[in-house]
Amino acid sequence: MRKLGMIGGMSWVSTAMYYEQINKGVIRRKGPLASPPLLIESLDFAKFSHLQTIGDWDAVAEVLTDSAKRLEDAGAEGLILCSNTAHKLYDQVADAVGIEVLHIADVTAAKMVRDGVKRTGLIGTRHTMAEPFLRERVEAHGISVSVPDPGTAKEIDRIIFEELVRGHVSRVSGRTLKTCLTVMGQARQQAVILGCTELVLLVDPVANVLPVYDTTALHAQAAVEWIITEPAAKADEAKVEVQEAEHA
Fold first, then answer.
1. N or C terminus: fewer CB in 10 A for the chain?
2. pLDDT digits (tens, 9 = 90+) for 171-217
3. Alpha-carbon separation of residue 91 from 206, 210, 243 (angstroms)
4. Contact, 122 vs 157, CB < 8 A?
5. What CA dihedral angle connects 125, 126, 132 and 134, to 10 degrees?
6. How far is CA 32 from the centre of its chain?
7. CA dihedral in degrees (9, 11, 17, 22; nearest 10)?
8. How far, in Å, CA of 64 to CA of 240, rounded?
């Protein structure tokens, strides 16, 4: 299995979900005693969130790229950013290291394409909903993306930062999100993307008015496939070694 680096702590709640889902996914594929080789760097979310709030994205990029380099130096063969919003700096992180970085929007869009989705809603932090970094990545796969009205978007952002990142789950907030998804369905969206890793705490991907694409689960599934899939170069080397042994 390949060693995966995880940049987490954005928040610890979502990082815990990633860790659990990746481990369970590897167990399903490799057996009950299997454990994936993981390196986790958990960032200080208070500092990370503050830098986002004041708009110092250069500092955020420095935090993420430094973390990525440390994980690469420690032996990580690939990386994931355990946060949708952090993908605003995906290009800087990917350019800073010489290993693969799995993009959360690519794996989500790939699943939607397979399911025939052409129009989807997107909910997440204010940055994810208002800025193009995630939306355009999904739209590049031929999927139209819409976001909630400004008032609803502001309330969703509040729910994320004042409740979900602290592990708090409110029935009132759950109803707010259910209403948002109902409105999206009435607007003839075919699905909704949970573009914040903690949103699954309030939105049931199975029992809902629209098909729900949980980016955390899809990213974790992609990480499992990456971990257990042997690189093509190593597979070719192994094949050559077998052939040489057979002819020895």
1. C
2. 999 999 999 999 999 999 999 999 998 898 898 888 778 899 999 99
3. 33, 31, 40
4. no
5. 0
6. 25
7. -30
8. 39
Residue given tokens 């994936």 in the structure block: 36
Q: Where are the alpha helices (DSSP H) in 55-170?
A: 57-73, 90-96, 104-114, 126-130, 132-139, 150-162
Closest CA to 194 of 80, 85, 79: 85
Task: Give the alpha-carbon dihedral of 202, 206, 212, 218, to 10 degrees.
Answer: 90
Q: Is 195 exposed, middle or buried (0-12, 13-18, 19+ CB in 10 A)?
A: buried
* 242 has pLDDT over 50: no
Q: Please provide the average confidence, as pLDDT, over all residues in the chain.
A: 91
pLDDT of residue 237: 52
Look at residue 248 in the predicted model and tell me its pLDDT: 47
Distance CA 130, CA 152 (A): 12
122-175 pLDDT, tens digit each: 999 999 999 999 999 999 999 999 999 999 999 999 999 999 988 889 999 999
Per-residue tokens: 97: 């290291």
Distances (CA, A) of 84 to 63, 174, 237, 241: 16, 20, 36, 42
In angstroms, what is the C-alpha Rg of the chain? 19
Q: Are 160 and 126 in contact (CB under 8 A)?
A: no
Query: Using an 8 Å Cβ cutoff, are 192 and 122 in contact?
Result: yes
